[in-house]
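Re: [ENG-882] Designed sequences occasionally contain unexpected residues at chain ends

Forwarding the minimal case from QA. Structure tokens:
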């Protein structure tokens, strides 16, 4: 989804607790702290409108200039680089990128590890087309061969059956199908990078459970998204609130801002094991106007039980 404006990540430039105290003392920001009254603002949009809003977003930004490659991912999630250490020759590991957008996350992963296959989905056909063009523009033939995009709208349905980790899939997709060559039994990694915050809050547990179903036992879900009191949250006016810590932009897309407690409840609630969970607090400077910004993201790693 929306991209950060800095090249330094996973830092501790300031303490989140200090930011929280500052925000909670500021009367002009009080509306962010209030409990949510569903009758005080617009009714939450339907899942159909949610998906259409993101399709419209990607159509408007179809040139891809709005996005930058997320090269920091391999530093923050070194498992994607070292997953093949000690593996056999010719062994491929599988990644499911949920909400791939224009491919800004997929491309660094494919470039960084020649032994990874990426299955990438999005609810926007425009985004998938842009991701395909980005991958096709690369000179490395192996990258094109290891990229498999597909359409999926988690707000309406789950992942296709061939992607799910189950005994039945091992028996059904055993031979003679493209999926069986790399997807039987699920994937090794799921990446949720600035994707879950765009899903209506009430749909998040179902979406997370779907991601768990696609993972092999012991597989990892790698998470990064907007954190509570990020500067983009503080810009929203009271009439843009769609729920507690949930907001709608002018174009109909929405964004949720996570605290660690909510993250823990969501992922442990569907059976994940927490490995890492913390705030990433970064100070950055807008090069165009020199304005200093305090960004807050949530960084997490969760494992499917073996």
């Amino acid at each position: 989804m929306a991209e950060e404006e800095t090249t330094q990540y996973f830092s501790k430039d300031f303490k989140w607790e200090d930011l929280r105290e500052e925000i909670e003392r500021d009367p002009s920001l009080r509306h962010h702290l209030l409990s949510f009254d569903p009758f005080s603002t617009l009714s939450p949009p339907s899942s159909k409108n949610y998906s259409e809003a993101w399709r419209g977003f990607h159509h408007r930004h179809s040139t891809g200039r709005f996005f930058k490659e997320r090269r920091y991912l391999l530093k923050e999630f070194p498992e994607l680089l070292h997953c093949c250490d000690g593996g056999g020759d010719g062994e491929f590991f599988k990644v499911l990128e949920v909400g791939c957008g224009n491919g800004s996350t997929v491309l660094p992963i494919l470039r960084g590890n020649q032994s990874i296959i990426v299955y990438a989905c999005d609810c926007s056909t425009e985004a998938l087309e842009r991701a395909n063009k980005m991958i096709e523009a690369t000179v490395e033939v192996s990258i094109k061969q290891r990229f498999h995009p597909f359409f999926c709208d988690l707000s309406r349905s789950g992942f296709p059956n061939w992607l799910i980790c189950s005994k039945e899939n091992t028996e059904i997709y055993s031979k003679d199908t493209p999926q069986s060559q790399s997807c039987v039994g699920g994937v090794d990694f799921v990446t949720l990078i600035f994707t879950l915050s765009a899903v209506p809050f009430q749909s998040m547990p179902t979406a997370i459970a779907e991601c768990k179903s696609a993972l092999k036992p012991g597989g990892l879900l790698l998470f990064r998204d907007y954190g509570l009191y990020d500067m983009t949250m503080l810009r929203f006016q009271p009439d843009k609130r769609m729920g507690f810590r949930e907001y709608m932009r002018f174009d109909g897309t929405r964004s949720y801002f996570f605290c660690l407690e909510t993250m823990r409840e969501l992922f442990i609630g569907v059976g994940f094991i927490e490995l890492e969970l913390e705030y990433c607090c970064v100070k950055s400077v807008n090069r165009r106007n020199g304005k200093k910004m305090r960004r807050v993201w949530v960084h997490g790693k969760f494992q499917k039980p073996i």
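QA comment: On inspection the terminal residues look reasonable. The mean pLDDT is 82. Proposing we downgrade this to a documentation issue.
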